[in-house]
Design a protein that fits this description.
This protein is mainly alpha-helical. It has 3 domains: 30 residues; 111 residues, no CATH class; 49 residues, no CATH class. The radius of gyration is 22 Å and the shape is globular.
Length: 201
Amino acid sequence: MTGRTDDIIARIRALEAQLESEFAARREAFRYRLENGRVVFEEEARRRHRELRTRFLTFVRRTRPMTVVTAPVIYALVVPIAALHLSVWVYQAICFPVYGIPRVPHAPYLRVDRHRLAYLNGVQKLNCVYCGYANGVIAWVREVASRTEGFWCPIKHATHVAGTHERYPKFLDYGDAEGFHEGLEAWRRHLARGGGTDATR
């Protein structure tokens, strides 16, 4: 891996840390704090949230009919998403111990907390629960898949791929036949140690 690529990755990580600092500042601006992973709003903020909630009937009247028609299509996807969740859970429970890869925990990915916001009505809260679960499952599956890819085939593609996972920039260069076997073993050792994004660490 070139020093230039390492520098770019380091800058990306610095920007991610800066973004987290900005999120912390926004928490203060919106008058809430985190206590043991749970959001606690100041009383005045909670009161204002309740005042700003759109009542159910008003919400329904403002909703376009075609939006209502598409709702069953959206919610029907919970079945394949739940099936994917279960399938990948079984997959990593069986295969990751064989490969020597630590299993990916759910908690960092499945965040379902937006339904606690007092300015959302019941329908909006249900939507937020669904989206939190669906996107959390997909993010968790992506991490399981990226560890699997790192174990079996940590090679970049020949052409640009949109939306690659965090490990991808450190994968082996396409066409590097001489470095493949050593690099593959390095990735497997790295994943066995905890599976971060950089096999050279």
